[in-house]
Amino acid sequence: LDSAARCHERAGQLQVAAHTYERLGRLDDARRCLGLAGEHHQLAELAERSGHREDSIRAYAALENYFRAATAALAVARSGIAEKYTEAVRFLEAIAKEHPDYFRGRALLAEIWAETGDTRRALTILETLLAGVAPRPEHVPVYYDYGCLLEREGFLANARTIFRLASSLAPSYRDLKLRVSASAYTVGAGND
To answer: Pick from 14, 43, 45: which is nearest to 31 by CA?
Structure first.
């Protein structure tokens, strides 16, 4: 992931680089990339996510705000305390299907599974989650992550379909234009 983040940064894909740096726990690099990209809203969100400590995890859990508790635990896990991944998963699995945080909670759960090496579980979660919704622009980050996982696992035609759908909803999101054109070339070359 480290070399991927640097490649994205050199290519000017600063939002993608920032996201990758954050997943690596390299928050200063993530902040730098977001600042260079002029993404001040995302920079503020990163500051909020990365400022969590053990006391904020407990406070959110006590309020039964399981999504925020999971986000706080994930920030701690990414800073090097790997056992917090398990805690984040536990919080996310506690979010009821009727709860307003369910969709983004499931998306974050898939991100955690992918980040910790269980890509198949992440794919299953995203496939189930997205099967039950009408595509809307606010779902583009989840479609993007789903497409990236499909691509990583070698499901190139499926990834192309997902990237095209996401691009139809928000063509300027991250590197979607590049992914759509690259997937068309790769799938067209018979590599699926």
So the answer is: 43
Q: What is the DSSP letter of 40?
A: H
**100 closest CA partner among 138, 156, 72:** 138
User: pTM of the prediction?
Assistant: 0.77
How far from the centroid of its chain's Cα atoms is residue 91's Cα? 17
Give one DSSP letter per residue of 52-121, joined into a string.
--HHHHHHHHHTT-HHHHHHHHHHHHHTT-TTHHHHHHHHHHTS-TTSTTHHHHHHHHHHHHHHTT-HHH
Rounded Cα gap, residues 41 and 85, in angstroms? 26
Structure-token pair, residue 65: 């705000």
Handedness of CA 123, 128, 129, 133 (dihedral sign): positive
The CA distances from residue 135 to 53, 64, 105, 131, 132, in Å, are: 35, 29, 17, 9, 9
Sign of the C-alpha dihedral, residues 133, 48, 40, 78?
A: negative
Closest-CA residue to 69 (of 101, 44, 41): 101
Identify residue 161 by its one-letter amino acid code.
T
Q: Which residues contact 141 (CB under 8 A, 6 or more apart)?
A: 107, 173
Q: Give the pLDDT confidence of 85-125 residue by residue, as tens digits.
A: 999 999 999 999 999 999 999 999 999 999 999 999 999 99
